[in-house]
From TrEMBL:
Subunit (UniProt): Homodimer.
Keywords per UniProt: Fatty acid biosynthesis, Fatty acid metabolism, Iron, Lipid biosynthesis, Lipid metabolism, Metal-binding, Oxidoreductase
InterPro entries per the UniProt record, alphabetical: Fatty_acid_desaturase-2, Ferritin-like_SF, RNR-like
Keyword Metal-binding: yes
Region forming the signal peptide: none
Cofactor (UniProt): Fe(2+); Fe cation
Entry protein name: Acyl-[acyl-carrier-protein] desaturase
Single GO cellular component term: cytosol
Species name: Actinomadura hallensis
Single Gene Ontology MF annotation: metal ion binding
GO biological process: fatty acid biosynthetic process
Pfam families: FA_desaturase_2 (PF03405)
């Protein structure tokens, strides 16, 4: 089997960037704070459910969360639940040896806490229907996870650079929207993990831009223009995402202003002078896409404000 130029580039990058991975891994370990999921769960509120323990069945009145916060927490948890699929995808790209393998396992171990604390909180506080939640988890995980761009190192690293930041924003805003100080503190703690993960991938991608600017620029544009959150295969995701967007928890404006633009600015993609050919073409495509996304975000915001005004008028 012949080796394609893309395969050779990927092999070369994995070799050449390992010192960067080791440096970023050490930086991450020096900054990451140990924390314990059980300390963020109000266990004293817990009581038995119906079933073998013959406790009290769940009903919607038991939840103190708004519909919007509840939907967002369900999406966040089901997304975190699919960690085995994400681990397989990232281990396939980065491998299991050296600093790459150490990072993959460390990242997986940190991410695993997120689903643990979210499920414990939601179950103990009776925030969501636990039966519906478990059925949704089974369906979502059985559907599996496949990265949109296969086992491409550049595409995969570009994706997680944006996705980790998007998740951080979503988690923080979900906590704020919950109206529950316990939930807000928990989501802020999870978001802090996601931020450190984003910095690792963002810095790794910056090194890739230096090593292979044109191919890396193409990967960035491909990922930005086709970006989907990792939980997009959740049953009812589109409906839930509309609820979340209308609540201002995560919408096009946040995606453009708080996720894409900060990362792209950090990489200096529009200031680079080392692009040519397809790399330059990819940057032009990216600029055009961002303009379209900005316009779409403004349109959505305008319509949302009009809907809110109409709703307020009806209540008045």
């Amino acid at each position: 089997m012949s080796v394609t130029p893309e395969d050779k580039l990927q092999t070369d990058l994995l070799h050449d960037l390992e010192p960067v991975v080791e440096k970023e891994l050490n930086r991450h370990l020096s900054m990451a704070k140990e924390w314990f999921p059980h300390q963020y769960v109000p266990w004293s509120e817990g009581r038995d459910y119906d079933g073998p323990l013959d406790g009290e069945p769940w009903s919607i009145e038991q939840s103190r969360l708004s519909h919007e916060a509840r939907e967002s927490l369900i999406v966040n948890l089901l997304t975190e639940d699919n960690l085995p699929g994400y681990h397989r995808a990232i281990a396939t790209v980065y491998g299991r040896d050296g600093a790459w393998g150490t990072w993959v396992n460390r990242w997986t171990a940190e991410e695993d806490r997120h689903a643990t604390v979210l499920r414990d909180y939601l179950t103990v506080t009776r925030a969501v229907d636990p039966v519906a939640l478990e059925r949704a988890r089974m369906r979502h995980m059985q559907a599996g996870y496949e990265a949109d761009h296969g086992d491409s190192f550049l595409h995969g690293t570009a994706y997680v650079s944006f996705q980790e930041l998007a998740t951080r924003v979503s988690h923080r805003n979900t906590g704020s929207a919950s109206g529950d100080p316990v939930c807000e503190q928990m989501m802020a703690r999870i978001a802090a993990d996601e931020n450190l993960h984003m910095i690792f991938y963002r810095n790794l991608m910056a090194a890739a831009l230096e090593a292979a600017p044109n191919a890396t620029m193409r990967a960035i544009t491909d990922v930005v223009t086709t970006f989907q959150m990792p939980g997009h295969s959740i049953d009812g995701f589109l409906r839930k995402s509309v609820v979340i967007a209308n609540a201002g928890i995560y919408d096009l404006r946040l995606h453009h202003d708080d996720v894409l633009i900060p990362v792209l600015r950090k990489w200096g993609v529009f200031d680079r002078t080392d692009l040519s050919g397809d790399g330059e073409k990819a940057r032009e495509e990216l600029g055009e896409f961002l303009e379209q996304l900005d316009a779409a975000a403004t349109k959505f915001e305008t319509r949302r404000e009009e809907r809110r005004a109409r709703q307020a008028a009806k209540k008045g």
